[in-house]
Amino acid sequence: MAVTVKASLGKTKYYTEVTAGENKIITDEPIDKGGQNKGFNPLEILAASLASCTAATLRMYIERKEWDVENISVEVELENFPLTKRAVFKRDISFEGILDDEQIKRLHTIADACPVHKILTNDIEILTKFS
User: Fold this and answer.
1) Which long-range contacts (CB under 8 A, 24 or more apart) does 119-123 make?
2) Which residues, listed in sequence order, are joined to residue 77 by a DSSP beta bridge?
3) Core-most of 18, 112, 118, 122, by most CB within 10 Å?
């Protein structure tokens, strides 16, 4: 499954409109980097992709199993180390509901099966062209 997004940046420093179909989000850079902090920065978007995909994947599984979980909270911290070309995602998942140890263990496996997690842990290739 392919998705297409388009980012458009005019003369307003770093204020970028990103569209996917009929949906739109705003990205920006923090004030200390010359932006206006009017939206998520690109690294926050990357971390948000993992967090939201994990939550949705877990919710789908929990609903299929009919487990009693009111809320799923996924917090992702992304630390980037450009000099070593390494990035570390720290993912903290918590639930409001009644789950036993075996269910929690299974949900850990399901979290690792989220599509964004799979993409980030596989080989990644970026093909660029200028039009």
Assistant:
1) 120/50, 120/89
2) 90
3) 18
Q: What are 19-59's pLDDT values in tens digits?
A: 999 999 999 999 999 999 999 999 999 999 999 999 999 99
Cα→Cα distances 101→45, 98, 107, 108, Å: 32, 10, 10, 11
Q: Tell me the C-alpha distance between 1 and 109, whole Å.
A: 22
The shares of helix, strand and coil residues in the chain, as percent rounded to the nearest 5, are 35, 30, 30
In words, the CATH class of domain 42-121 is alpha beta
Q: What is the pLDDT of residue 1?
A: 77
Instruction: Give pLDDT tens digits for 94-106.
Output: 999 999 999 999 9
